[in-house]
Amino acid sequence: MAIGAWAALLAAGVLGGASLCAGFVVPRRRLWLPTLAGTAALLGLAAATAVVWRLYSRSDTSVAAVMIGLAASLGGFALAASLWPDLLERRRTTPTTVEPGEDDGALHVIVLTDAEPEHYSPAYVAAAMRDLEQSEIPVPPEAVRTFFYAQERARYRRIGSSPARPVARAVAVRTSTLLSAQGFEGHASVAFCAGSPSLADELAAGVRAGGRRFVVALLATADSREVDRAKRDAARLEVWRHGIEIVYTSPLWSAAGVTEMLADRVLEAFERKPDDQDGVVLVAEGQPWQWDRTHPAAAEHATFLCQRVRAELVTAGLCEDKVRTAWLEWDDPGVTEVVRHLAALGCRRILIVPATLPFDSVASLLDLRSSADQAAVDEGVTVGVLPAWGDDPAVAAALCDRILEAARELGPHEKGHHAAAGEAPS
Question: 38, 121, 153, 313: most buried, per Cβ within 10 A?
Fold first, then answer.
């Protein structure tokens, strides 16, 4: 019986630690499960400790039992933390081969974008952590990473849900309307660089539906690492063996309509002719320097877009030295530093503009406002934050132009009609 009591003590401790770890990771709607397991573990620890006391009737043995239970709990926490990435990893379901359906003679359009999930997803966080680790970017130990899940869950709770994917679908709907005005029919489906549906999923669905010619429209500022990975995953389907043609559009950093839209938003926000007391912070996303080595275009294109917007604003009357670029993360200068700098230059009204973000995210909705608050500028200085591009008509128009240009690379197509891959966006 003594061996059983000690074994139960160890098992309850491990279960309690693992339950605590799970409590930091799982979505709030599933917190009942680790709570139930943790309660059972706590009762088990209490029962095992009571049995040990009854067997030995010695205080030092009871203290040892408590310490062993605590050590087992720490071990269970560390074990669960090390297992979470593998447990959360979503297995690919996209087939490695695709059987084409009967040729429908239509052009299929897929809008590809890098948008975070609408609701907190531990699998998404785990994939991001693993991605950083595989890129040799320093990350905290596995046990410490557990708290990042809880932090991300709390951030999602603050905003309710991320608007990124709904906005991406809304842009696809607008683009579909513009394509229809050009003589095409149907809609544009949406694929995401991370999560489901992926580009490979949408491409496979389109091929099975009879698609032979595809245009993948990049709803992105630049050819990023995430976009490149989505292209590689799609290439593994080897649809070219069936005579399938795929053309990718260029990113939107050079779209004149997007540049003008961003500049117009700034000027409208000032509600008057700009003067030397107005300042603008053009925010780009940024990426680790390790990624700059393999995908330098991401930072270059973001910088070019900000420079184009800056030129528009200077032409409209803003002071050249009071329109600055900042980085949301990874790179310097940061938003807080630039806001302080503009305030020191005498700006009384400062606008923070997420210039390279196609849609708002958890980071833009929380971190931009937080960065402005951290600047702690004088009371006479007002700092505002503009929304991201969203489903502005200029974005859909830029996508439509690039889709039509890419379609010409595929040559004339039968009946002049467009059919979409996948289901209609909702």
Answer: 313
Closest CA to 382 of 269, 265, 263: 269
Residue pair 394/172 in contact (Cβ under 8 Å)? The answer is no
* CA distance linking residue 19 with residue 320, whole number of Å: 56
Instruction: Compute the mean pLDDT over every residue in the chain, rounded to the nearest whole number.
Output: 86
Q: State the Cα torsion 170-122-30-117 to the nearest 10°.
A: 0
In total, the chain counts a number of residues equal to 426
Class (C level, CATH) for 107-251+393-416? alpha beta
Show the tokens assigned to 76: 């269970």
From the CB of residue 46, how many other CB atoms can be counted at a distance below 10 Å? Answer: 12
Count how many Cα atoms sit within 13 Å of the Cα of residue 146 in the half-sphere of its side chain: 22
CA neighbor of 48 nearest in space, from 86, 82, 92, 4: 4
At 73-107, the pLDDT tens digits run 899 898 888 887 777 765 545 556 778 888 787 88
Asked whether 260 and 227 are in contact (CB, 8 A), the reply is no
| Cα–Cα nearest to 258, from 176, 342, 170, 354 | 354
Give tens-digit pLDDT for 40-71: 988 888 888 888 778 777 777 778 878 888 89
Whether omega for the bond prior to residue 425 falls within 30 degrees of 0, making it cis, is no
254-385 CATH fold:
Rossmann fold (3.40.50)
Determine the Cα–Cα distance for residues 247 and 215; give it in Å rounded to an integer. 5
| % the chain with pLDDT above 70 | 93
Please give the helix or strand (H or E) that residue 279 lies within, else none. Answer: strand 278-284
Contact 111, 167 (CB under 8 A): no
Rounded Cα gap, residues 235 and 241, in angstroms: 11
Domain boundaries, the chain: 2-88, 107-251+393-416, 254-385
